[in-house]
Amino acid sequence: MTEPTLSSQLLGLVTIFIGIFILMLLTAKNEEEAEQKTVIIIEEAEDFREIVRRNLKNSDRKSTYDTQPPVGLPSSIEDVPQVFRECIEDYDRLAQDYQEEARINDLLRSQNTNLLEENGRLLYQEMTMDFRQNPRKWRAKT
Q1: Engineered SS bond to 4: which of 8, 38, 68, 89, CB 3.0-4.6 Å?
Q2: Integer Rg of the chain from CA
Q3: Can you give the pTM of this predicted structure?
Q4: Which residues of 121-132 are buried (b: 16+ CB within 10 A; e: fewer)?
Q5: Cα–Cα distance, 30 to 5 (Å, whole number)
Q6: Rounded to the nearest 5°, which phi and psi values hold at 34?
Q7: What backbone phi and psi angles, to 5 degrees, belong to 80?
Q8: How many Å apart are CA 11 and CA 2, to the nearest integer?
Q9: How many CA atoms lie within 13 A of 131 on its CB side?
């Protein structure tokens, strides 16, 4: 194989540098456009805030609570539609059942604790009596 001539080597280097230069120009142009877009977005947001302030300042006060009281949630369960009322009643029954089971569980837990304490005390008394009845262990103690 033969080596390319000096002119073709220089032509290749020049084309590479021109390509890199064009890529750098396109990148810089895209970055400028992105910066301009962010500036425009910020200016639009500031304009929006100014417009909102102006609208609030010039707003008509007739549509506020002074003339129309707010409509909120129904005050009682009778005001709720039937479908939702059934769900609410089911939830209330479920909550009451859960609270009753929790109370029963707490009662059983306290009874179980008392039984364990009593069994432990009785076992200790029985062990001390067995220990005292065994003369060999009794002598080792004294």
Answers
A1: 8
A2: 44
A3: 0.31
A4: eeeeeeeeeeee
A5: 38
A6: -65, -40
A7: -80, 145
A8: 17
A9: 10
Tell me the C-alpha distance between 132 and 74, whole Å: 75
Each residue's pLDDT expressed in tens, for the chain with a length of 142 residues: 688 899 999 999 999 999 999 999 999 888 877 777 776 676 666 677 777 777 777 766 655 555 566 566 656 777 777 888 888 888 889 989 998 998 888 888 888 888 888 888 888 888 887 777 766 665 655 4
Q: Rounded to whole angstroms, how far apart are CA atoms 31 and 42?
A: 17
Q: Which two tokens stand for residue 129?
A: 């009596």
9 alpha-carbon distance from chain centroid: 63
Extract long-range pairs of 57-61: CB within 8 Å, 24+ residues apart. Answer: none
